[in-house]
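1st attempt posting a full record on here, be nice pls
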Amino acid sequence: MQQKFKRHQKVRILVVPNEEYVEYYADPPVPIKKGMNGKINLFLPNGQYHVEILDEEDIVIAYAPFNEEDLESID
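the predicted structure (as tokens):
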């Protein structure tokens, strides 16, 4: 299976992730919005990407799975 994104590549989130699958890292949790930046963390066996969601200062605030069409490359 050909991957569109590489590990540690910066991406922009095009959709709000399902709250059920979000793992918050920041305390208190920061709301995740469309257009936030992220970085590819892992490739999941189901074809999705596990993404580190970043704040304005590039600090990890959460992790969430995304489909390929839900992301766009920043680089």
